[in-house]
Amino acid sequence: MSTCAITMVYKDYWALSQWYTHYGRLLGYEHLYIVAHGQDPMIANLCPRANVTTIPRDNLEEFDRKRGRYLNSFADDLGQTYDWMIRTDADELICFDPSLYASFDDVFDRSQSDAVFALGLNVAETINDRVLAGSQMALGHRSTAVFSGHYSKAWATKRGTALWRHGIKVAPSKLASAPFDLPQGVYLAHLKYANVKALELANQHRIGVGNTAGKGLPGAAWKEADKTADRFYLHLVRFEDKDWASARDEAYSAITSEPFRDAKGNVLRSLSIVFKNRVTLPSWFKTRFGADQETARKPG
Hints:
This protein is α/β, with parallel strands linked by helices. Helix content is 34%, strand content 22%. It has one domain: Spore Coat Polysaccharide Biosynthesis Protein SpsA, Chain A (Alpha-Beta Complex), CATH 3.90.550. Residues 295-300 have low confidence and may be disordered. It comes from Sulfitobacter marinus.
């Protein structure tokens, strides 16, 4: 089975390095496709074995819509070569329980649909965590997380299935019956809050885009990105701890029992359920996916 990974990025260098190392180890670096949203030679320097494509950044209107359409078209083109296309933001790493799956092939072999979802996790830096060095993988040094309905996203598709608004586009006649394929033991680790220093830099860019004049730009989460981050960390401190298994089962049941079938947009996605407990990630996140970048890139 052949699989590639795709992302689009602008200047989020720390997250991109995490993405490149994670998916390169699991798929092979030659199967990574990075779309640079604006000319940026740093991307090729950071990701020397990936395939880098550049698109213009001269008009930011209809920001998410244009990016989504481009990436869906790009994925369909790659679908002539690959069986599955993984597509995530640069700060999103798909992780699977190694007691259930040895590889992405195992996940896809068990899928009976054309798109796969994952159970979302916001991985967080806490006051007791050390600042990450540039070469360190977040999952090797961060263990606090919160389950998230918003980030329980579709992340892999076969050719002909489009990702949209964290879910998938579905024909109106099939919306009611389309499978919501979220396999147990597959997680989307969202790293936005895992590195406070990198987040501060990324938020400068988000605020700039969100407050640009024009139509169809990102909303409050980008316009006030710093305030959004402050609210997350404040809630994190106030949440109570819950054991991994109980919190996982509660989140999985809530997310899979009632997916949102949006008849207005013909989109199947997760409800943006808010979970109010902290969890400690199982050790396999670190041992399976947390090796630092120098180790990950050694030949053989």
